[in-house]
Design a protein that fits this description.
The longest helix is centred in the C-terminal third of the chain and has 32 residues. Helix content is 61%, strand content 0%. The protein has two domains: 141 residues, no CATH class; 133 residues, no CATH class. By secondary structure, the chain is mainly α. Helix 2 runs antiparallel to helix 11. InterPro entries: DUF3080. This is DUF3080 domain-containing protein. Keywords: Signal.
Length: 335
């Protein structure tokens, strides 16, 4: 019986070790960091935070129904003078009617730009210009909806904004920076009135990159879960701060042990990873306003800037505890 229990215990330890070995490195580091702190405090560690995957709400909850606009008047021969006839004819072809959301967005922008060009053309008669004005007004109102649907309901963008993995600096994200810059330029054009200004470059050529290199989803996943881990460890430290003694004629062994844990696990392993995630965000922060809440959505489906602010705040709060502890114990940070 005793031998059986030993075998079962050994198997359990091997299973737990295997699970720990399979965990991502940053999770292992945080888990060890929390356990070492609790051990020094001589208390039980707080429950580890659950890892949250990064995902968007269901498509139906995000999709805006856009009424169809009858463009029969745009079949006019006069539109050949302002290069809009062929664009619409291509759209009305068999292939054009089954365009994905990338090509549809490029078409909607080109159409609106072409409408403005036609209205300013001297070769278009006043009656047709009046009709074009009405269509243009409707298309102007619909374009932000088209953009919103593209960002949050197209399969490619949903993949870009979703993730279940930690950001890695050496992971190949391809030419994602160029793709994000293209998104930013499209956003600026969509939000600018009137849409007679030069068109941004088409977004369709970046479809594959945005699909296969989900940098934004990885960053959102990482910042969200790092915030939870940092807050958990900070709570552990604060709730049992009284267990750490400092001052003359006091046993300061726990403080020195805690100090070693800080430098070994936080400074040695965790902080460099936090810096790499923050650095990656800084490189793409200009696109954060793209995903801010607007009149089209009461709650931002992908609050990139807000999550980064929470991540930075959690980091600052964590460091603030250590600074306070070191000051209380008469140790200068860095010593």
């Amino acid at each position: 019986m005793r031998v059986r229990l030993l075998i079962i215990s050994s198997i359990s330890l091997l299973f737990l070790s295997a699970c720990q070995w399979q965990r991502p490195h940053i999770e292992q580091q945080f888990s060890t960091y929390l356990a070492r702190i609790a051990n020094i405090q001589d208390v039980a560690p707080m429950p580890e935070p659950s890892i949250q995957t990064q995902s968007l709400p269901d498509k139906r909850a995000l999709n805006h129904q856009i009424p169809a606009v009858t463009l029969g008047i745009l079949d006019s021969y006069q539109l050949r003078h302002c290069q809009l006839f062929h664009l619409i004819a291509e759209r009305n072809s068999i292939l054009g009617k089954v365009q994905d959301q990338f090509r549809n967005l490029d078409y909607q922008m080109a159409l609106l730009h072409g409408l403005h060009h036609c209205m300013n053309s001297p070769e278009i008669d006043p009656k047709l210009k009046h009709q074009l004005t009405q269509v243009t007004k409707t298309k102007e109102q619909q374009l932000p909806w088209q953009w919103h649907n593209f960002l949050y309901t197209s399969d490619v963008m949903r993949h870009q904004l979703s993730s279940h993995r930690w950001y890695l600096r050496d992971r190949n994200y391809g030419d994602i920076q160029s793709a994000l810059t293209a998104l930013l330029k499209v956003n600026q054009w969509v939000m600018t009135r009137p849409h007679s200004t030069p068109l941004p470059q088409p977004i369709t050529p970046y479809q594959e990159t945005l699909d296969k290199s989900p940098l934004l989803g990885d960053l959102m996943f990482s910042m969200t879960n790092l915030t939870h881990w940092l807050n958990t460890v900070t709570q552990q430290l604060k709730h049992h701060d009284s267990a750490i003694w400092c001052g003359s004629n006091r046993d300061q062994r726990r403080f020195h042990q805690l100090q070693n844990v800080f430098y070994k696990y936080y400074v040695g392993d965790i902080q460099p990873y936090l810096a790499s995630v923050d650095g990656a965000y800084q490189q793409i922060q200009l696109i954060a306003p793209l995903f801010a809440s607007s009149s089209l959505s009461a709650v931002a489906p992908f609050p990139l800037k807000k999550v980064h602010q929470e991540f930075r705040q959690a980091t600052l709060h964590h460091i603030a505890y250590w600074q306070h502890l070191f000051e209380r114990c008469g140790v200068k940070v860095g010593k």
